[in-house]
Amino acid sequence: MRTEEFDYHLPEELIAQRPIEPRDAARLLVLERATGAITHDHFRNLGRYLQPGDLLVANESRVIPARLWGRKSTGGKVEVLLLRRRDDRAWEALVGGRGVRPGTTLRFEDAQTGAALSAEVVEVLPHGGRLLRFAQPVEELLARLGSMPLPPYIHAPLEDPERYQTVYSRTAGSAAAPTAGLHFTPQLIEELRAQGIGWATVTLHVGLDTFRPVQVDDPAQHKMHSEWFELPPATAEAINQTRAAGRRVVAVGTTTVRVLETAAQWAERAGHPTLQPCAGDTDIFIYPPYRFRAVDALITNFHLPKSTLIMLVSAFASREQILRAYNEAVRQRYRFFSFGDAMLIL
Description:
Number of strands: 17
CATH class of the largest domain: Alpha Beta
CATH topology of the largest domain: QueA-like
Shape: globular
Oligomer: single chain
Strand order of the largest sheet: 2-1-17-16-14-3-12-13-15
Helix content: 10-25%
Distance between the termini: 24 Å
Order of helices and strands: EEEEEEEEEEHEHEEHEHEEHHE
CATH superfamily of the largest domain: QueA-like
Largest sheet: 9 strands, mixed
């Protein structure tokens, strides 16, 4: 298996630049793995494809305004993307600028509000980022100094920052949105619950690998950067009950898949027959072939060519089915990537 086998042609005009309104007006491509059948619909009709007793599991992580612009003590400009919080003042980050070596002082200011923040570059990290230590806790100043870290393929300005958040986001910490969940509205969630479909949440703070392509020919040689996750007790119990009843666990997004499959692997190694509540760091990389232990169906967006995410969905269905579905989505003029349309894999 080679990275190039997960490539496909995507016309640039199909990369969605703005979110659709309302959220659940997005289109929905439904792929049935058993038959390969493809159905075209809209996300507001998701309940047509779910059954009473199914359980939706979503990532409630909230995106922080993690992009900062500042200057070095020498005056040179820098751009910082906060990726992972180590403690109140220490953050892993991507830093754009020349000569950003350990010992360099960075300063961020807002001329309108007078807010200011400084940080020292502590070390260069293995993935090429930097460890920064700020002079004070960062979170309280991010709302004034930071901006929403939209992916580099989105060039249009975001008028409402909440449109890059899911309506159920709660726990701040991500550098990118878990975008499969952007299509849900509070009304749709209530309609699904009234249909007898369960709802549960996990947390995974999305970090570096959202911005990092697979740069090796052999995917097995790609090293995932770890991200913090939590599977709470109530969600573990809901999943175990759902599977015991013979119903489906439907993951909302690839980040949720990574949480559930990490927890399933940990439980398996510990000799537990069911999922256990857990939290920690995961660097799980799912690509074909892979035996899924906890996920029965998947809601996801359309992903970048040759990315870890298209490899994950190809492991869930098959590379052939996924590429056929993507090519069909291109023919049908679906909208791709973060603000794009959705896919349900059954």
